[in-house]
From TrEMBL:
High-level lineage: Bacteria, Bacillati, Bacillota, Clostridia, Lachnospirales
Biological role stated in the UniProt entry: Catalyzes the isomerization of 5-dehydro-4-deoxy-D-glucuronate to 3-deoxy-D-glycero-2,5-hexodiulosonate.
Pfam family, one: KduI
GO terms for biological process, alphabetical: D-galacturonate catabolic process; D-glucuronate catabolic process; pectin catabolic process
Assigned EC number: 5.3.1.17
HAMAP family per UniProt: KduI
InterPro entries attached to this UniProt entry: KduI, KduI/IolB_isomerase, KduI_N, RmlC-like_jellyroll, RmlC_Cupin_sf
Matching SUPFAM superfamilies: RmlC-like cupins
Family the UniProt entry places it in: Belongs to the KduI family.
Pathway membership: Glycan metabolism; pectin degradation; 2-dehydro-3-deoxy-D-gluconate from pectin: step 4/5
Recorded catalytic activity of this chain's protein: 5-dehydro-4-deoxy-D-glucuronate = 3-deoxy-D-glycero-2,5-hexodiulosonate
Molecular functions (GO terms): 4-deoxy-L-threo-5-hexosulose-uronate ketol-isomerase activity; zinc ion binding
UniProt protein name: 4-deoxy-L-threo-5-hexosulose-uronate ketol-isomerase
Cofactors, names only: Zn(2+)
Length: 286
């Protein structure tokens, strides 16, 4: 597990392009047959990915000082690859493309698998410290509710922006209060419509939560210019397909792509109010 420390906005003002990338950018997440994890001291989020060819168990590793990964943690997972399954304490959950899972604290044995080794699942992971156990559930954007399965509510599929502003997008909220109970983790996915390239613009910060973005569904020659930093001290990081970026609570988090794309957002912190954010006026960005 790679470890990264927290950073001060005063220090970030002096970072080079390479230093920005070393501190905030997460590359090479999806490696066939492996689980990759990055532990950030910023709200102690763990960001990672599992790309199983053969079944792979999720272990705590020495860094967590825990008997098992979810001993004191909760876990959110979204599959952006082929069909697969996640086995949690003996129960098998079939997780398809853009389907998700919330796995509660105390879940001991977690195993990732792909239905076909030639078309492996790509399980993207966000994990946060937890103080109580919430139910483990499979989350689907569409379908019929059943035991252990939550269907995303219509009110949690939000269409925003416009083509004229180049930010026409649909937000699908997977893990948040009122739909999937968690201690602090929230996760969802935003898809930009063809012709739109901006996300989260006008932008914002939120002092009570940090955030991680994973950009995907981009061809090899495409990129996203991800903007971060304090509103009057912005910086950029060039990001390619299936790369993630850590966003501290003091930083804006917005991107503009060379074409439309999709991104997964995950938030952890003391506040789960999705709309608790401090908006930044377009004229105030520098």
């Amino acid at each position: 597990m790679e470890l990264r420390t927290a950073v001060s906005p005063r220090d970030v003002k002096h970072y080079t392009t390479q230093r920005l990338r070393e501190e905030f950018l997460i590359q090479n997440l999806f490696v066939p047959g492996e689980i990759k994890l990055v532990y950030s001291h910023i709200d102690r989020i763990i960001t990672g990915a599992a790309m199983p060819v053969e079944p792979i168990p999720l272990t705590a590793g020495e860094e967590l000082r825990a008997e098992f990964f979810c001993q004191r943690r909760e876990l959110g997972v979204i599959n952006i690859g082929g069909a697969g399954s996640i086995t949690v304490d003996g129960r098998v959950y079939k997780v398809g493309f853009k389907e998700a899972m919330y796995i509660g604290m105390g879940s001991r044995d977690i195993v990732f698998a792909s239905d076909e080794a030639a078309c492996p699942a790509k399980f993207y992971l966000n994990s946060a410290p937890a103080h109580r156990t919430c139910p483990t559930v499979l989350i689907k954007p569409e379908g019929t509710p059943e035991e252990g399965v939550v269907i995303v509510k219509d009110e949690n599929k939000v269409e925003l922006g416009s083509l004229e502003d180049a930010n026409h997008r649909v937000i699908c909220k997977y893990i948040l209060p009122g739909q999937v109970e968690s201690c602090q983790l929230e996760m969802g996915m935003t898809r930009l419509e063809p012709g739109s390239v901006w996300n989260t613009m006008p932008c914002h910060t939120h002092d009570r939560r940090m955030e991680v973005y994973l950009y995907f569904e981009m061809p090899e020659d495409a990129f996203v210019m991800h903007y971060m930093g304090e509103p009057d001290e912005t910086r950029h990081i060039v990001m390619r397909n299936e790369e993630a970026v850590i966003s501290p609570s003091w930083s804006i988090h917005s991107g503009c792509g060379s074409r439309a794309y999709t991104f997964i957002w995950g938030m952890v912190g003391e506040n789960q109010d999705f709309d608790d954010m401090d908006g930044v006026a377009m004229k105030d960005l520098m």
